[in-house]
Amino acid sequence: MKHLPKHLRPRWRYLAVGIESWPDAKIGRRAFQREVWYAGQNLLGDPGSADADLTVVRFAFEDGTGEALVKVRHGELEAARAAIACVDEIDGSPVGIFVRGISGTIRAAEEKYLGRGGQVSEERNVVFGNEERVAVVRDGSADVRLDDAFAGATDLDLA
Amino acid sequence: MYEAVHARPDGDSTVARVAKTAADYGFDGVVVLNSPGTHATYDATTVRDEYGVDVVDGVEVRADTKREASGSVGNVRSTHTVVAVAGGTPALNRFAVENDKVDVLTHPMARGGDFNHVLARAAVENGVRIEFDLSGVLRQSGGRRVRTIQSLRKLREIVDYYDTPYVVSADPASHLEMRAPRELCALGEQIGFSSEWIESGLREWGRLAERNRRVLSESFIEPGVERGRYEKER
User: Fold this and answer.
1) What pLDDT digit, counting tens, does each position of B151-174 carry?
2) pLDDT in tens, B163-220
3) Could you tell me if residue A97 is left (phi over 0), alpha (psi between -120 and 50 degrees) or otherwise beta?
């Protein structure tokens, strides 16, 4: 179909979202999209989530941290922010989620808020709570592998 | 703005990790609300210097009966800046709001608890803050979440009418369960709170900590009487 004249095209905003989980979490783009829409529908209802759109347009996740770009209709930003805050678990892994910023174009959002990665994570033997453990250390944070779970720590907690 | 958190061994993350995340999310401080039996070991000064986030040593008394709670509150009052009582049952809610040693009544609507005008008035009189616990809205789903939102609304209407002091928290038990203040405000707007209301509730933790630190400090003798510059050690 012929595309719309400029004044009739919807105006979009792009939310840059930071995602965090335990190092063993496997989170794919489809799973993230499913959870975001699910959260939107649960909190905002069908009409609200239809208005907000909430399509994931960029996604990356590796080793327990990731980032995504979520497309939102201009004027529904606060509703979208609330819906995104309600994503608490993806495929059984608890996630922390944080809106880093908002831009009017994908490119601006990518340049300003995404691709901050760069901090390499490394596995290290550490002493945590008087016991020797393996931890995934990144940028001052450490996820310490316990017997059947992880513990969130920082380099202040490690000996 | 402050957030009340549960740190290891009460939660999954250490105080330092929670503080680091709080700094990233734009909080000014965290109140550690572990139960008396799960005391977290941390050095508040080091954490504050490293991440620029104030760490308040709090405690959340969890008891099944009024008697148990009363004993615990007496034990922890002099050693902690913020003393909270986990509510739920009518007896515990009533105990908390009628006791001026208690600073905060946390999740009054949990475990089938309820709140009414009598408790609201008592809370005003004794300066007990009522907690609005957003964890259920963030992390539950279906009918349970509906009931949580209903109970928050009821609580809000009562607290609003009687001008009861209140605090707001997402009650995180790890750094992953934390949410930034702006997200909490946006969420509040969806369930009928104004964002100013949520912000003021998050700030109240900080005001509370500041007041209690002054009261617990050595220069404070009683309201209106403080150790001044002419006071000599004897």
Assistant:
1) 999 999 999 999 999 999 999 999
2) 999 999 999 999 999 999 999 999 999 999 999 999 999 999 999 999 999 888 878 8
3) beta
The residue range of the domain holding B120 is 59-170+179-216
Q: Tell me the shortest Cα–Cα distance from A114 to chain B, in angstroms.
A: 15
Domains annotated for chain A, with CATH where assigned, are 11-113 (3.30.70.3250), 122-154 (no CATH)
Task: For B103-162, give the secondary structure using H, E and C.
Answer: CEEECCCHHHCCCCHHHHHHHHHHCCEEEEECHHHHHCCHHHHHHHHHHHHHHHHHHHHH
Largest CA distance in chain B: 65
CB contact under 8 A, A152 and B176: yes
Amino acid at A84: I
The whole-angstrom distance between B93's CA and the closest CA on chain A is: 28
Chain A interface includes B48 (CB < 8 A): no
CB atoms A152 and B145 under 8 Å:
no
pTM assigned to the model: 0.92
Judge: B183–A85 Cβ closer than 8 Å, yes or no: yes
A–B interface: beta-carbon pairs under 8 A:
89
ipTM over 0.90? The verdict is yes
Name the token pair of B209.
């900590």
